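We read letters as residues; the fold follows as tokens. Both lines appear below.
***
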Amino acid sequence: MKMKKTILFTLLVIITPALIFLLTGCMKSPEINKEFGPEVSPEELRKTIQSIETKPVTSIKQGEFVYLERVSRVENQLPVVVRQQAETVTQKIENATNYIFTIDRQLAEYDGVSMKPSRSEYMACLAKVDGGCTAMSSLSLPSDLGVHSGPTADLSWRKVTTYAETTGKKTSYHNLKKVEKIIPVPTLAARRTDCGGLTADQCKSGIHATELSFDLVEWEGNNWNKTSYFYYFSKDVPFFASQLSACGSTTVPYAGQRVAVLQCDDVKDFSFGHD
């Protein structure tokens, strides 16, 4: 039993997106458009994502809170929670050149046996003028549309769409889809007496969300590997919860075969801050 858990955890570790891209298949190179569907350029993908409406960075208030979980699944195994993350804006300071946010982060990560907790604090800056955020991590406009604008950006759209530029590897993007939907409020937020700061109608009927999906194919010689991405963004929730869901799925080599793996970061709870 212990050996099975060790093998499972090993697979969960290797499916983080930074490594997913490195796990290429061993198939004959197909004709891209025939095998993988309509191709789109990285620039077209970025423009589509940046057209999605979410809460602006300027809406962040002291006390804003978000809690999300990272779940990984290997083949037909049960999903495993491998990361729990809560972030709270503990301070917001405004001056002539910028807004400075102090953010408290509580983290628990699975090490193969149990969840290991940690706590840290970091600062982020939103510039009002050019050069207003020197020597500090900067929140940009448009931003990474959610909590992934912080130090951990594994599944952030910005990292995915600039992969070829940052690694020099040959990649292509396919099957871009953008759909507007009404989806349920995240479970824990819906249980709050104030529904995380949403209206009673939103809590009952659901919130507006933009569903985005696309495939990324990485090439290395005649070998290729496809990773499928799926996101939910919403303008009805606090800024740090704007990227409500981010999932990546692919296959990885294991014991002479390829097994399906899935990893998702999902917002479970949030609360608006106050002035």
